[in-house]
Design a protein that fits this description.
The chain is an alpha+beta fold. Among the domains are: 264 residues, no CATH class; 35 residues, no CATH class. It contains ten helices and 20 strands. β16 and β17 form a beta hairpin. The longest helix has 20 residues.
Length: 479
């Protein structure tokens, strides 16, 4: 019987995928790969600021760091991308493409961004808009990275644990001694100020907690060769990259943890270090409680942070117990939430301000937020968020598509049936900041209505309860 080359190719691909999915129940396998996603053309837009900042070059390579785990019954993929914010559509497209290449169901993939503010724009926010060519490039590279990690599957053992580094996280929202509308772009009253500066007499103390835990999942070969290290720390980003593209401290950590673990990259596949962003929506690396601001050269501080956090992870890793027989479970669910859309009066006021604002790009906060008001007016009344819960042995991991406030992550850790549990934020999409209802009452930058903050005020309790339900379901499977 004659068959066309395309039919033969399809049959061979299906056979290959079927064979690659065969594994003995209880036999853990893992594969990892760091796919280079550095843009090929410059200059390119960088987002993460109120003004767009075109980068002329990359100071260090950007990656989509991929990890695939298979317990013989279920296969899951983790990807952490060096990018500020990635919209759900791009991640969904990458998952569908990767699923065709690997056979891993799209609902068994977790893709997140690091939130480094020194990466190419792929999602519109403030005055930066996506570069279509790079969006397509990044989508394909993420999928290719998952495929390569899947191709690298081999027998493995894993360990997990929790370190602590209290020296690198500070809540950036400070309580004002007197409520103020001084910096609010809508002329409303704030009770907190983000990043108030040093020696500011108008503020009293931080408005929320921090989470100093360094959670990790370590992967080795059966003989003990380091193969991958997925970490999680609740730090927004570090910065200080001099206007060049950079993976920030996330990339520096990936390199440093490999050095500390004495990973031998002369053997293939190479070791892959991965740092994911935790619940850091209200946390940064600047201690405004100091009287004198420290000074750093470009890239100096992010390397110091990376070394500090990696050292803390290594100390906890020394006590970790490796296991080659662990079960994996994963659940995914959607939740529909309301959008805090502008009123007709808000839209009219925004149009008037824009008409008087002069040429784009806009220079003042009210003008920038007027543009955001008009952009947000085009949003639907509700949006769907994808939430995930994953269990690896007794380790719990949840995924939220937002910049999550620390209080939310601490509540999930406290109430989770799996210990330890940590949150990967900015995962499977990006729906702006996620404050608690109480933090909404305090107002401040992270609550100002824009594409960077638009979910309903009661969003976080609904998300927490949905994730706890998923965690309880996957925990029950391990009994």
């Amino acid at each position: 019987m004659n068959r066309s080359p395309s039919v033969v190719g399809i049959v061979l691909l299906a056979l290959s995928l079927a064979l690659s999915s065969v594994a003995t129940a209880g036999e853990l396998r893992a594969g990892a790969f760091a796919m280079d996603v550095t843009p090929l053309k410059f200059p390119i837009s960088m987002n993460g600021n109120l003004q767009d900042a075109p980068a002329k070059k990359a100071a260090d390579p950007l990656h989509a760091r991929c990890l695939v785990l298979d317990d013989g019954q279920m296969r899951v993929a983790f990807v952490v991308v060096d990018n500020c914010v990635i919209r759900r559509e791009l991640m969904d497209d990458a998952k569908q493409l990767a699923s065709k290449l690997t056979g891993i169901p799209a609902e068994r993939m977790l893709i997140s961004s690091t939130h480094a503010h020194s990466c190419p724009t792929v999602t519109g926010v403030f005055q930066s808009e996506p570069i279509v060519e790079y969006v397509e490039f990044l989508t394909e590279r993420i999928a290719a990275g998952i495929k390569q990690a899947n191709d690298n599957l081999a027998p493995a053992r894993v360990a997990w644990g929790v370190g602590r580094d209290e020296t690198q996280v500070f809540n950036r929202r400070w309580l004002l001694k007197e409520p103020s509308n001084e910096s609010n772009p809508f002329g409303l009253t704030d009770k907190v100020q983000m990043n108030p500066g040093f020696n500011n007499p108008k503020v009293s103390k931080s408005a929320g907690p921090v989470d100093p835990e360094v959670n990790f999942l370590s992967v080795q070969s059966p003989e003990g060769r380091p193969r991958a290290f997925l970490a999680n720390y609740s730090l927004h980003y570090v910065g200080g990259t001099g206007g060049e593209l950079s993976a920030d401290y996330f990339g520096a950590f990936a390199e440093r943890i490999g050095q500390l673990l004495k990973a031998d990259n002369s053997a293939k596949p190479s070791f892959v270090g991965i740092m994911s962003n935790g619940t850091s929506g209200d946390v940064n690396n600047v201690n405004y409680g100091l009287t004198t601001p420290p000074k750093f050269e470009p890239f100096e501080k992010l390397k110091l942070v990376a070394n500090s956090v990696a050292t803390a992870a290594l100390a906890a890793h020394a006590k970790a117990e490796y296991r080659s027989a662990v079960s994996i479970a994963m659940r995914e669910s959607e939740i529909e939430l309301k959008v805090r859309k502008p009123s007709s009066d808000d839209i009219a006021a925004a149009k008037e301000r824009i008409s008087k604002g002069g040429a784009f790009p806009y220079k003042t906060m009210p003008e920038v937020y007027a543009r955001e008001t008009l952009k947000l007016a085009e949003y639907p009344d509700t949006v769907k968020l994808k939430l995930q819960a994953i269990r690896i042995g007794d380790l719990g991991i949840v995924a939220i598509p937002a910049e999550v406030f620390t209080e939310i992550g601490l509540e999930l850790k406290r109430r989770s049936p799996l210990q330890p549990t940590f949150t990967i934020a900015l995962a499977n999409g990006w729906n702006g900041y996620l404050p608690t209802p109480q933090q909404h009452e305090l107002a401040g930058y992270e609550t100002w209505r824009a594409r960077s903050s638009y979910l309903e005020i009661g969003a976080s309790p609904k998300i927490v309860e949905t994730l706890l339900k998923l965690l309880n379901e996957i925990a029950a499977e391990n009994k």
